Amino acid sequence: MKEYIIIDGYNVINAWSDLKKLSEENLEAARNILIDRMAEYHSYTGAEVIIVFDAYRVKGAKIKKDRINDVEIVFTKKNQTADSYIEIKVESLAKDKRNIVKVVTSDLAEQQVILGSGGIRVLPKELKFQYEQMKTKIEKKVEKSTNNRMNLGDRINTEVLEILEKWRREDG
Questions:
Q1: How far is CA 115 from the centre of its chain?
Q2: At what angle do helices 27-45 and 17-25 cross, to 10 degrees?
Q3: What is the pLDDT of residues 104-160, one digit of tens each?
Q4: Could you give the number of structural domains in the chain?
Q5: Residue 47 lies in a domain
Q6: pTM higher than 0.85
Q7: 98 within domain boundaries
Q8: Which of 30, 89, 103, 170 would give a disulfide with 114, using CB separation of 3.0 to 4.6 Å?
Q9: Which structural domain, as residue segments, surrounds residue 89?
Q10: Cα atoms found within 13 Å of the Cα of residue 118, Cβ hemisphere only
Q11: 8: nearest Cα among 112, 123, 170, 151
């Protein structure tokens, strides 16, 4: 079974307050942060992540696909919305009943089309919650492993430790 998570990129950027604020000053930076976060999400969950950005208003734009840190990035072609690209992709992936296809969007009409195509809708705030939970789990695991480190003195008996300490003082 393979899990896919398809993200309406600008929809998520506009739904996450930190990214929305950043996008007002620097849209490319907001896109890059979303991509980085979803690369972490992919590494943690193993889900195939596809982020789709609208380019339908860009003159002469052709569909552009890229892979950054194991995340597929798609800029739609001229006159194609992210929604229409996502709908086609969901239909294609959902044909294989072994696939789990999740779509992150807050667009109600899009959610209904996704559900009708066999996909699972995820709201941007749900994805943010999952991402934040994931980060917390990773931080706790790192903290725990850091706290569980033992030094040499914790692993050898006191007599040997005293002999080593005596040698250290004699050489010093």
A1: 22
A2: 140
A3: 999 888 888 888 888 999 999 999 999 999 999 988 888 777 666 666 666 778 888
A4: 1
A5: yes
A6: no
A7: yes
A8: 103
A9: 2-146
A10: 16
A11: 123
